[in-house]
Amino acid sequence: NIGQFAIERCGPEEQMGLEFKGESSSFIRFNRSKVRQVTHVEQCHLSITFLQGGRTSHYNLSITFDEVSDRAKIQSAISSLKKETKLLPEDPHQVLFENSSVSENVNQGR
After folding, report:
1. What confidence score (pLDDT) does residue 101 get?
2. For residue 49, which phi and psi values (nearest 5 degrees)?
3. pTM of the complete model
4. For the chain, does the N or the C end have fewer beta carbons within 10 angstroms?
5. What does the angle CA 40 – CA 62 – CA 68 come to, to the nearest 5 degrees?
């Protein structure tokens, strides 16, 4: 999965947090009791928080569920984060990730 793929790119002195948000919704629009538009929306986003050497950086990207494309985007994002983080000043208030956990919230429509 893409989460595991991202985490595996984390070095021994690095930490990474991932947040995935997605939506799959169908809409029907009516006008004067007639169906005027039927639409389906799918959108997914991955937010990466990268910690290294007392520094923190963030990256947001869209996910398409094309595995090759998504892995390339994630690899590029992590490479950018690693370069960017080295240029940032240390954050004296940085909070490290102390445990790894997974949570999930799925809201089903009617």
Report:
1. 67
2. -110, 125
3. 0.79
4. C
5. 100
User: How long is the chain?
Assistant: 110
| Rounded mean pLDDT, 62-83 | 95
Among residues 39, 40, 38, 80, the alpha carbon closest in space to that of 60 is found at 80
DSSP symbols for the chain:
-HHHHHHTT--TTEEEEEEEEEEEEEEEEEETTEEEEEEEEEEEEEEEEEEETTEEEEEEEE--S-HHHHHHHHHHHHHHHHHHHHHSPP-TT-----S-----------
